[in-house]
## 1
Amino acid sequence: MTDVAVAVAAARAAAEVLLELRGGGLTGRELGDAGDAAAQEAIAAVLRRERPDDAVFSEEAADDPRRLAADRVWIVDPLDGTREYGEPGRVDWAVHVALWAAGGLGAAAVALPGLDEELVTDPAPALPGTVTARPRIAVSRSRPPAVATAAARAVGGELVPLGSAGYKVTAVVRGEVDAYVHAGGQYQWDSAAPVAVALAAGLHASRLDGSPLRYNAPDPWLPDLLVCRPELAADLLAAVR
């Protein structure tokens, strides 16, 4: 199997168990906790079978410091958007599986089980249409950053609250929104796979100061993030710096 095929197989395995659990009797936090555990095991089983020698860096597993010396590291978020997953009817949650190799992101898959969709790095998604007359900027449902308001003002846009980080990035890829502005911190697994897909599709992805996003770093914290249509990048970066 190619690395992309492995990423897809792992993401699909997690998506299947998450949908099965969601159709049972669990709800809310109990459903979210069960989903986190089941999706982690589903992904780990695929990686153990297909890439037993690779390191794994996952939200739902203990951090193994050996990843820092490894040539290949799978960065995984088995269930991105646990809260949204626990709310009946919401689709804005995701499964992330990305390979970090040779110092950067490579093969990746993002499953959107609520939409029955998968986005991968190869073949990369084709960006739909053009920027809307009033650009739409995805932000957190619970804590939209002040810089997002400045960004929206700079491009004459509007804020669109959405769920998980991965869903917000893929919303840019899919044309649901034109940009995603985040400040206040995330972890590397929150964005690795969706950023890999976004970059493959030709989108801009960086820190808010314009510097590159770094993955498989010793500290898993990633303070901020901008993903947007390339034609908006200069104006948005000027607004949020």
## 2
Amino acid sequence: MDRLIYTAMTGATQALEQQAVVANNLANVSTTGFRAQLAAFRAVPMSFGDGNTVNTDTTRTFVLASTPGADYTPGPIQQTGNPLDVAVQGPGWLTVLDSNGNEAYTRAGNLHVDTNGQIVNAMNQPVVGGGGPISVPPGSEVTIGKDGTVSALIPGDPPTTIVNVDQLKLVNPDPATLKHGDDGLYRTADGNPADADQNVVLAPQSLEGSNVNPVSAMVAMITNARQFQMQTKLLESASQNEQSANQLLNFS
């Protein structure tokens, strides 16, 4: 009896967790540079023992979440005309500083200059250049090139006096070494900063959209709802079977 209960219970729990992931993806279908999160689960035989020996019951299984990941397929790129908007073309990431001052990575290139003259992202996190956060002259006209070069032109100066301020730190670590944080940023699994990669190319005055497919996300939500329904029905069946077994024992 407990085999059915444990399997159905853990199956329902994982269906709920997977539904939360899909719902988060659907909520970010319009978020700049968002990467769809993946969720999967698998059946694992139950292990039991007295602390000294461990036995495995292949007829009794739990449902456990597999290693989560993300879909790194590039999203659509759309031109905006904003000189501070950038989109990463192909593989690669922009580097920013998180709330703890550590390097983190994002595909969201909707940048702006804050009141302190620093280039920051939409979450007001400083964008990292060759020597740390990038500062530009007050009131200057800022442009960003395909290689991440940040140029500034002070108002009133002729175009020939434009100067290169810094260069965005563009990285391209192995996706398998990245982990997604609750703040929406990605970090290396070992916590060490990734090296700059000169092969990463930007699309200036453009933004990359979310790579979430809303139709697929809706289908996944319906599928998860059906799976959760099936697991709860199995729990009801296990309860009914237990009641019937108790009645038979009472009559015996």
